[in-house]
Amino acid sequence: PIVNNPPFGISTEAYLHWPPLFHFALAAVYRLFGASEEVSHAFMFLLLMLNTLLLGLLVHRCWGLVAAQFACLTWLGCGVVGLYAHLVWNVHLMLVFVFLSLLGFVNAQSNWRWALVGVLSYGLAIGSSWEAVFLCPGLLALSLWTRDRRRIGLAAIYALVALVIPVLILLNSAYHYPQQMPEVWQRASFRMGLAHDYVSTYVTSTRRQFAMPSALSTIRTLVERHFKLVGIFPLLAVAWLLASAAGTHRDRRQADGVV
Length: 259
Known about the structure:
two-stranded antiparallel sheet, mainly alpha, globular, 259 residues, 3% strand, 72% helix, single chain
């Protein structure tokens, strides 16, 4: 998306710090309903409802109706969801596609169309926000742990998507806005903790020094803010789901041994 105000002049600039899909979707919504705060928050509310629905379907597929109800209530009661669900943010659209890609991954063994839905959704999730890339290592680890060849193959396809989509986005950015690529790489280095300079050409065109926090201070901050942003019920839900998964895996191994 272009960040200049008209007239654009000879050289335009774009917002390249995040993938562009959310901006395209928001622009389409504004074109249909007009650009206003009410439309923006209504769009975010729609994404919240979609996220809740897809989370419920995913948990229902894995652990049943009671777990799905518990997951949806926990999701809606989570402090961080209540605080940031109204925020016009690309992460909300990413979560829609993440839940849909997980649903496709889980259902892929029963229908190959679900595998296609999952792969396409995963690509759209990465096109919405970079954080979706980190879904891939978890799927690979889960597939290798279950030793299911079909799941391992599908997880490998997800890994390929996680590699190809960011490369295509960055190549497109480099082709259209080569003058901004040094800033993009520097921003990426800062986000990964490899640089202490935070560059913002949109505000001051200067470098601002930031002291990267230590691991201990980061952990302390997470603990202090945990109950405000998350609360105890999501922790109980995670513990219950992990225990259920371990119990299901144990029962299957025992059943295979009997057979």
